[in-house]
Design goal:
Number of helices: 13
Largest sheet: 6 strands, mixed
Radius of gyration: 20 Å
Order of helices and strands: HHEHEHHEHEEHEHEHEHEEHHEH
Number of domains: 2
CATH topology of the largest domain: D-Maltodextrin-Binding Protein, domain 2
CATH superfamily of the largest domain: Bordetella uptake gene, domain 1
Number of strands: 11
Helix content: 40-55%
Mean pLDDT: 89
Distance between the termini: 17 Å
Low-confidence stretches: 1-30
Structural class: alpha/beta
């Protein structure tokens, strides 16, 4: 599991040129255009990274009139750590509703879904992959720790420390981190929230020692001086106001990172015409300044657009490697 947690996402990314070379050209918008409200499901709470990702996409789609002047309605379905919402979307029957339904989906959704349920990536229509996100560890204003060296010293002294975060890849990142540090889950405990926003609220209230979060959800609190980055869970430091956080390698350990890819899928029953339309829409969004400068650069993500065909191959391989890493055949 450790090897998977540290290197899987990048192993899949390195395979991307193979997918690109084999890619069949996606058709244009074809015969489908939205004719009614678009229902967009988000399986994390408002304020977290998935919500910020979704709202940035939605704002550009509406402002640039890429959705035929139709309204987009965001539906938050967080029950069962988001599994209820994902199951709902995967089961939508073919027809107009399927063609007008989108779901924000990422690797942090796929891993627990594949581990804990029978729902799988192939039960959705991959539409577009748009970016890769990574993690940092933060302290709040009232934290007893000022840097991660102090955290390591406290753990070595036998103290218990609690880390708050979201689900999915945040949990996988914590698992990889405690293995690399050589401490137990009881000593370096993890408290999962429905979204990063809940974990941030908790750290602002000094309810936990540390916060694990991605730049998208943490950025405004770093700028306000409410939280401070102390560890980059990445192979390199982050830019800008996150640059003070060292990597784990700089502290004498192997780097740990579990990059989270951010994407959009639809119900499996979505028509080929609708898949082509939505894939084209997200491709257009990915080339706008509002996306590259207003979201990607601001939130310190790695831009990486994949259309329906490439994303399908990418997600399928990611799931297969993950299932193998946890001892599941399918």
């Amino acid at each position: 599991m450790k090897k998977f947690a540290i290197v899987l996402a990048f192993a899949v990314l390195l395979a991307f040129p193979v997918f690109a070379a084999a890619q069949a050209e996606v058709a244009g918008p074809a015969s489908f255009v939205p004719t009614k409200n678009i229902e967009w499901y988000v399986t994390s709470s408002p304020g977290g990274g998935s919500d910020i990702f979704t709202r940035n996409l939605m704002d550009i789609m509406v402002s640039d009139k890429l959705v035929n002047d139709q309204n987009i309605v965001i539906q938050y379905k967080t029950d069962g750590a988001g599994e209820v919402g994902r199951l709902l979307v995967s089961n939508i029957k073919a027809g107009s509703q399927a063609d007008h339904t989108l779901l924000t989906f990422n690797s942090g959704d796929l891993m627990p879904m594949a581990k804990n349920t029978n729902n799988r990536f192939e039960n959705f229509q991959p539409i577009a992959h748009l970016a890769v996100d990574k993690h940092l560890i933060f302290v709040g204003e009232g934290s007893a720790y000022k840097n991660f060296e102090e955290v390591i010293a406290a753990l070595k002294a036998g103290k218990n420390i609690t880390l708050a975060g979201s689900k999915g890849d945040d949990i996988a990142c914590h698992a990889a981190l405690i293995k690399e540090l050589g401490v137990s889950e009881d000593q370096f405990a993890y408290i999962a929230h429905d979204a990063s926003s809940g974990a941030i609220t908790a750290i602002l209230g000094n309810h936990y020692d540390l916060l694990i979060c991605k730049p998208a959800a943490a950025s405004q609190y770093v700028e306000a001086g409410k939280i401070k980055p102390i560890l980059a869970l990445s192979t390199s430091r982050f830019p800008g106001n996150l640059s003070s956080a060292p990597t784990l390698k700089e502290l004498g350990y192997k780097n740990v990172e579990v990059p989270n890819w951010r994407s959009v899928v639809g119900p499996k029953s979505m028509s080929a015409e609708a898949v082509a339309y939505w894939s084209d829409v997200f491709k257009q969004v990915s080339t706008t300044d509002a996306w590259t400068k207003g979201y990607i650069e601001k939130q310190k993500l790695v831009p990486e657009f994949m259309d329906h065909n490439v994303f399908k191959a990418y997600g399928t391989q990611f799931q297969a490697e993950y299932l193998a890493s946890i001892g599941k055949d399918k």
